[in-house]
Amino acid sequence: MKASDLLVKCLEEEGIEYVFGVPGEENADFMMSLEQSTRIRFVLTRHEQGAAFMAEVYGRLTGNPAGALSTLGPGATNLITGVADANMDRAPLLALTGQGSTKRLHKESHQIMDVVSLFEPVTKWATSILHPDTIPEIVRKAVRLARTEKPGAVHIELPEDIAKEQSSLPPMKPRRFRRSVPDDKIIDRAFDMLKKAKRPIIIAGNGCIRRRASKQLRLFCEQTGIGVVSTFMAKGCVDMDADYCLYTIGLGSKDRVSLAVDDADLVITLGFDMVEYHPQLWNPNGDKPIIHADFLAAEIDAHYNPQVEVIGDLAHALWMLNERVAKEKALDFDLAAQARCRTAMAADFAEHKDDVTEGSIRPQKALWDARNAMGPHDILLSDVGAHKMWIARHYQCHEPNTCLIPNGFCSMGFALPGAIAAHIVQPDRKVLAICGDAGFLMNVQEMETAKRLNSNIVVMVWADGGYGLISWKQDTEFGTHTDLSFGNPDWLTLAASFGWHGHFVSNSADLEGTLRTALDEQGPSLLVIPIDYRENPLLTRKLGEITSTI
Q1: Where is the Thiamine pyrophosphate enzyme N-terminal TPP-binding domain (predicted)?
Q2: Which of 41, 76, 231, 386 lies 20 to 30 A from 321 at CA?
Q3: Is 179 a member of any domain?
């Protein structure tokens, strides 16, 4: 069969369900082959970056990769930001790019660049198909690497002349195996450290949002009472209503949660990636006793030098610890500081729940209302900007993968295309994206994609007419900020021009009701609020007062 047909057959064999992207001349054969597939759906997007973000969110929510397609040259460079975001946030993804004929790759030629070398730093593996008979092995390896802990992005390039060649080889049959599990002696060492501790605390990272890991973590905490501090990526690994949930850590400034970590005499990190919250911020002297439990060995860092490393399947490691906890007669911990932290944080969340401001809306109120309007299994996606900091601190979750935040690579423009993919994966759940006006306009063209797909999503834009996070940080460090303001469209006209429902709410008393209306509408809805970012420096001041007086 033709090489492009074989590539599609191999993707089908791996269970690939979606390819998001923008076609070009150099991947025309692949597109014709994909058109014939009854098992893979191609979703045409308006920009390659949007395609990559859609594939990333699909991977986050399912644990399986989707394809993110572009042509060569500028298509590939457009794709790379979303691919890098997926890779650093541990989402399985297949980047599929076209390429010119191998007969012209050695010389200066139209749109030719070394795409594989471009993708190598932001993927787990990148390769070019140089012979059609290598396709079954390449696809099998790529999908396996994308799915293997820790998951990430891989890149396959198909030159246009290779796509037309013939191969008689069949696809390879996928074989999946159980992950390696930790050694009993290592678990015993970790448990001995736990028994000697008086004030242990858990920092839960990205690896804990896998459903098996979350289940075992909750059982561990129910047996021990040990508090869990979640990174931005780990929201929902334990239920926000559980007494042992200590909410989220990750702000640049120290918070109440940071004080609970300071008080601990043992830190247990579970599925923790260093890009989530650098240990220098919670272990500045490098003297905290640490148990590192994860799929991979710890990164080498002066502020992160674990006494015990539990390497292997995280859910199984927690199951092994749970067995030991169940057999132990009593574990004597002093967790009073953690209880005080939870109580104080909960009071912070509720402080502005009854706001009746007019003309602008405080971030705290917007997120209180969003949490009320969203069910336990509904999905919120955050873009990147000042709103992300507020979401990280104030929006808590009941279940894993119900708050998706780009954290490692931190790319703006994530939430709108990501919401489209979230609705594809979970069409029966409410999907809410929260964006700043800057991030929303970076991929505003995907409004057309959402309308064409009739995506039941709501995008809430926090409009402040500027780069709010940058001004917040500049003000904090320098006492002033550079000119970061810009103009915005007429939001309701913008919504109407794309066939979206449109809402503008400037009074806080009207927000929750309007949001509920938007969430119940058929098709995409845009809800814009003038955000009161005067709260940004007030939060900075509050955090400083908290950490200086306790």
Answers
A1: 1-117
A2: 231
A3: no
